[in-house]
């Protein structure tokens, strides 16, 4: 009929999305590939199919070049999907655009920064080479609420001062401390650290895990709600107990 609006076919709406920020520190493609595969193997459900925000600012600040085409191909081959690139030079931006990876202005797209890729350091004592880790990664501190759909990954301990919403996922290679209500999913010791622990003031989680041993909300007692608790492993069994 005349004067009637056509039926709606599509619409653009504002959206907040979160992507892993992959910060590249080395131009060693072999080391990058090895480190990526290690990380994916440690938490395949977390990384598989994840959108990636590629950050070359640290690398370019050192004047080191990297083959962006090969890097993007590597990520896609590992089922990681670059959705933007930042900190790139003109040539790198050109190659990225040719591969349908848009240029990012530098605004934040998430709370996760992938750890440094470094060549293994060696300390020589006599004739024996001993691997040495000279730096200890400080704990990651989160002061804002972790919203549904948001994912946090810490390469050390993770400390969260606000609530973790249902549908959120937090992971740490070390301990997890949540000084508020914990909903969503929380995984400590994701690299197999059986000494890792999880602490929170109010356990209402969908899933908790230490070193791959987990319990879901169906296994968690309601008596742990609104009480400070700790979660740890004891003889391969996941123990949840109230803190006295």
TrEMBL record:
The keyword Cell cycle applies. Residues 141-241 form the Septum formation inhibitor MinC C-terminal domain. InterPro entries: CAP/MinC_C (IPR016098), MinC (IPR013033), MinC_C_sf (IPR036145), MinC_N (IPR007874), Septum_form_inhib_MinC_C (IPR005526). Belongs to the MinC family. NCBIfam families: minC. Residues 11-82 form the Septum formation inhibitor MinC N-terminal domain. Signal peptide: none annotated. Cell division inhibitor that blocks the formation of polar Z ring septums. Rapidly oscillates between the poles of the cell to destabilize FtsZ filaments that have formed before they mature into polar Z rings. Prevents FtsZ polymerization. Gene3D superfamilies: 2.160.20.70, 3.30.70.260. Interacts with MinD and FtsZ. GO terms for biological process: cell morphogenesis; division septum assembly; regulation of cell division; regulation of cell septum assembly. Keywords: Cell cycle, Cell division, Septation. PANTHER family: SEPTUM SITE-DETERMINING PROTEIN MINC. SUPFAM superfamilies: Cell-division inhibitor MinC, C-terminal domain. This is Probable septum site-determining protein MinC.
